[in-house]
Inverse folding.
């Protein structure tokens, strides 16, 4: 479905140096560069339209609320006329479609609307969101490295004890909620031995005072997702192992390590990239929970307050930002797949 | 007919025992769940083998009572999602346009982290409590589950016997129930197991964030949250419910892996935590 435009490359053969995207096309003709570019544009459009659809759903969910931002922030003894005036000020008396269009068109400019307390959502997110992003992206990087290493290691010993132990550990790990892993880490590493700080302390600018405060939250996030992705990597490598060129490499007597890394892994990359990209959402959601436990200054703490205040614009704003980040990660995996498949075309 | 094998059944025993124990637990609790019997965060003592929690309530009694609602609602969610996915997935498998719609629906659902989805639905349904959380879990899990069923059923719809059944004028629901579902057994078992694990994950996480069950209810996730402040005074108040959730999730995951001989492989891995590769 998502593999560029296969009909493009052969029709015209202009010799302009395309210098295009990193697809490994054998003859770098302008036509195939254009085809690749069209494929990329199409991927971006698909992902962006999906994001817009999600935002429409989030907006609809917020609209289903019985109250709105004007009543949520109403003070005691405010008259109906005052309320109506504020509703007009906030634009809440506009028709639904007008407000949705206004919200959507403001989003790309960084305007996420106004929280129930009258503070711009973008301003409320400015400090905590990067902290959460650092947490989630470090965990993603760790997950990629660990699951590739574990999956490849298991694949070099197919059916052996190491393969089975890794398989069962991975299955067990991905069933665990992140906050359970966090509890399992915090007792031995912080409370009993004092090796790592148990809670995050911030400096003046609102970011963690020391990088050691990131170790446990990142581990708590990465361990379940590593379990999940190790299974993806192992499964993708097992699929590749059945292919003729890999079997030929085995029969040629190449060492298992070379077979896995040189012959099986390249073909498994699209499946692995797609699998790992789906971890982005889980990591982001898990970060919100783990932050509450470690008192990490991210959006988790902010959202906990938003739920008790029923501050839906804030939650919708966070959902929009999270959706955008996850879209970028998914798009990256789309492009990796496109490049690999394009190279084979 | 023996799809599971003795080994598969044996691996399902721990999960089954645990579910039975958690459902029977409230009747075994030695103390009331909402009455103090010890000092706050008292370490294990004669009357309270796991000590007391932040209000001096018996941790063991609360542990025995705290899993019932979680497990029952997770089971209900898994059943609803699986049954719903069978219906909608089989229907979608019979029409290419519906399949594209299903693909897009699952692609959209990935973009919303489950925590945020539960928060949004919990807020739009104030006072919904556990029911709101369960509804949110169904809504978040269904798109992906439909895709798994539709993806697994699609190759079957091109087989002769399905085409024959359709051409001879059988109703779609009949074809789905009698021809498609029996051939999707291992996919559906894997789907049910993973949906159960996912439901435990989301529902317990909502409990941890205090969206579903409210104090003074006994709930494993809520116990972890409430007692984390006194983890050094009585670690069991946090460790016991953590272990309970961990053992539940792991045993169900291993059981569903053992029961579904060939785990369902989605054409394109979708939202996290679903079918195993």
């Amino acid at each position: 479905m998502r593999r560029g435009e296969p009909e493009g490359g052969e029709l015209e053969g202009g010799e302009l140096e395309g210098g295009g995207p990193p697809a490994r096309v054998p003859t770098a003709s302008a036509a195939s560069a254009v085809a690749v570019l069209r494929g990329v544009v199409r991927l971006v459009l698909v992902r962006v339209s999906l994001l817009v659809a999600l935002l429409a759903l989030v907006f609809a969910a917020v609209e289903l609320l019985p109250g709105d931002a004007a009543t949520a922030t109403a003070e005691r003894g405010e008259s109906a006329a005052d309320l109506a005036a504020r509703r007009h000020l906030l634009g809440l008396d506009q028709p639904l479609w007008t407000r949705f269009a206004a919200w959507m068109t403001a989003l790309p400019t960084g305007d996420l609307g106004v929280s129930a307390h009258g503070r711009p959502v973008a301003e409320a997110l400015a400090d905590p969101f990067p902290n959460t992003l650092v947490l989630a992206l470090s965990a993603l990087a760790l997950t990629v490295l660990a699951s590739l290493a574990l999956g490849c290691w298991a694949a070099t010993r197919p059916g052996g004890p190491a393969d089975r132990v890794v398989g069962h550990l991975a299955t067990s790990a991905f069933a665990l909620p992140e906050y359970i892993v966090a509890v399992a880490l915090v007792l031995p590493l912080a409370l009993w031995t004092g090796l790592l700080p148990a809670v995050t302390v911030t400096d003046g600018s609102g970011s963690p005072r020391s990088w050691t405060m990131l170790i446990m939250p990142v581990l708590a996030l990465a361990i379940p997702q590593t379990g999940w992705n190790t299974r993806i990597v192992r499964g993708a490598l097992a699929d590749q192992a059945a292919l003729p060129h890999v079997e030929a490499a085995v029969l040629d007597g190449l060492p298992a390590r070379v077979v896995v890394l040189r012959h099986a892994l390249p073909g498994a990359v699209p499946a692995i990239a797609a699998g790992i990209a789906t971890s982005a959402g889980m990591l982001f959601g898990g970060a919100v929970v783990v932050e509450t436990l470690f008192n990490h200054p991210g959006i988790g703490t902010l959202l906990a307050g938003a739920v008790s205040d029923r501050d839906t614009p804030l939650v919708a704003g966070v959902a929009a930002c999270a959706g955008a980040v996850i879209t970028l990660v998914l798009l990256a995996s789309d492009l990796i797949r496109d490049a690999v498949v394009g190279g084979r075309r | 007919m023996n799809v599971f094998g003795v080994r598969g059944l044996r691996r399902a025993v721990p999960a089954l025992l645990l579910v039975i124990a958690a459902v029977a637990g409230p009747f075994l609790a030695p103390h009331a769940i909402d009455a103090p019997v010890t000092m706050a965060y008292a370490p294990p003592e004669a009357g309270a083998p796991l000590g007391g929690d932040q209000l001096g309530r018996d941790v063991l009694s609360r542990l025995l009572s705290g899993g019932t609602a979680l497990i029952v609602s997770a089971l209900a969610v898994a059943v609803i999602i699986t049954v719903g996915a069978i219906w909608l997935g089989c229907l979608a498998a019979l029409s290419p346009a519906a399949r594209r719609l299903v693909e897009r629906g699952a692609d959209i659902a990935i973009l919303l982290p489950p925590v945020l989805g539960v928060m949004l639905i919990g807020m739009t349904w104030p006072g919904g409590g556990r029911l709101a959380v369960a509804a949110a879990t169904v809504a978040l899990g269904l798109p992906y589950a439909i895709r798994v069923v539709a993806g697994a059923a699609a190759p079957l719809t091109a087989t002769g016997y399905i085409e024959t059944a359709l051409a001879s004028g059988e109703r779609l629901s009949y074809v789905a129930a009698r021809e498609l579902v029996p051939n999707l057994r291992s996919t559906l078992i894997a789907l049910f197991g993973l949906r159960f694990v996912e439901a435990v994950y989301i529902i317990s996480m909502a409990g941890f964030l205090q969206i579903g069950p409210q104090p003074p209810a006994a709930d494993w996730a809520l116990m972890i949250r409430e007692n984390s402040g006194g983890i050094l005074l009585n670690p069991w108040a946090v460790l016991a419910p953590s272990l309970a959730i961990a053992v539940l999730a792991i045993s169900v995951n291993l059981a569903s892996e053992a029961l579904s001989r060939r785990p369902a492989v989605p054409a394109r891995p979708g939202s996290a935590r679903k079918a195993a590769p």
About this structure: Chain A touches chain B through 61 residues (CB under 8 Å). The mean pLDDT of chain A is 79. The radius of gyration of chain A is 25 Å. The first helix of chain A runs from residue 30 to 63.
